Please model this.
Amino acid sequence: MTTLATRRRPAPGGSTVSRPARSGASSVGRPGFAWALPATIFFALFALVPLVAVAVLSFTSWSGLGDPEFVGLDNWKTLIADPVMLKSLWLSLLFIALGVVTQTPLSILLGVWAAGNQRNRAVLSAIYFIPLLLSSAAISVLWRALLDPNFGIPGQLSWLFGDGNLLGTQTGAIGVLIFVGMWQFTPFHTLIYQGAAKGIPHVLYQAAAIDGAGMVRQFFSITLPQLRNTAITSIILMVVGGLTTFETVLILTNGGPGTDTTITAFYMYQQAFRSFDFGVGSAIALVLVIVATAISLVVVKVSGYDKMNSSLEGL
Amino acid sequence: MKTRPNYLAGIGSFLWLLIVAIPLYVMISGTFQTRAEFGDNGPLSFPTSFTLQNYADAITSGFGRYFLNTLVVTVGVVAIVLLLVPPLSYAIVRSRSRAASFVFRFFLLGLAIPAQAVIVPVFYLINTVGLYDNLIGVILPTAAFALPICTLILSGTMRDITGELYEAMAMDGASPARAFFRLVLPLSKGGISTIAVFSALQAWNGFLFPLILTQSESTRVVTLGLFNFQTQYGINIPGLLAAVTLSMVPVLLVYLFARRALVQGLMGAGGK
Model:
């Protein structure tokens, strides 16, 4: 409690002199900014400087050899007129929407369940989290093998999957990508919800039980509202994750059939590292950053997260 | 209060268990079957024979080398993270300077920067300094992108060290460096092992940076090896499954022995 006053940020104008003597004594052992410097420089070099550079590169033409050449708005004009780019943005939004609506209810249910204290819970959760540990590359290769039209599961269960070539149609390919995304990421979101559900005070449930609320009612009136902040975090992570899905698309569908699963992140890779058009690639990368930020801001705004104080208000 | 069983969630969780476990079962049982048997019986059948040939195939196709490369990348990334993050988190938690609180917000912002957004400039940078197709060129950006989340996790741990302990050290006239080595490091062992495990997992599973920044077989990492194996021998499903299984073994071992650190890190990653 004594640290409360010293934690307050110093008022503008340097109030260090007016601070009580004992806090002066405790700042003797405080580290200076130099301690943060190496990590900050390192991170700036690989994340912040490139972020600025990508904006600059989006106005240049560069094939990977020689030096980038300034071309003004050419790349942006190319992109705006490019039907594949527009299609990729719609596909990305579709991916994000389908990802959120499939993963959110499932991970809330699983998370709330895993937060309970059933006896078999620990063992089951240990298995649930396995996909979380595996690389996207391994998961994609695994599913590609499992879904192989000739030697995979669809071939064996042809009554369920028809001709078995799931990745051959747009609907099938999108379905597979969404399903694999769900398989891979639901454990992570389950874990977040589990942590949050464990933190909901028992008093709330006791009060509800006294008022005669059943389990379903408790779930909708207490658990869900209490998980609201967590849901926003989780959805933002899903949005950014969905927008930057890459390995699964590259390995499972390679953007196909045709360009039917070429989402924006994959199109960026194609333009930059397959067509060696780094200028257009940079412009697409910038679009990705803008879209990710915009969607996250919308989620925060719509949910009222910025105005919210605490979900425990009134306790 | 006694928790009543939640049947709906119980059934749902059992179904989900099947969805998670069946592919893993097919993966492992497939690796012990010959290609002919796997093709004839289908992936869901019980294996009737036993062979280790698929693992032998995977290893002789170059995975030994890929494992070594991934190991080098992982060790490099963890070393950089352990060198940079503890002092940074110490400054964020304890420093009075306004720059330090600005740095914290800067790293929070960094959480939202996807690696894809900066991959072209990073490629340019690594090329320019002559580290293309060199494992160091993979290590540097991978470590940089592990910093924000590790900083978030570790500064969370360090905040739990009470002010009284620091004051006691300051009374004895200890310098910030002494407080760091004598007080902060020993008391944040849990957080440090969490970020070590966490950044190791990221490095081990990394794909985009190696894909963009390396090309030859001598610098190929496991994840790229899997991708390559699939493009080349996509028809050899049991061999492919053996390669995938091999790539998972080290991670599963870590999960077995450091589950707490890992799960805590992941929870912290999303929950804060």
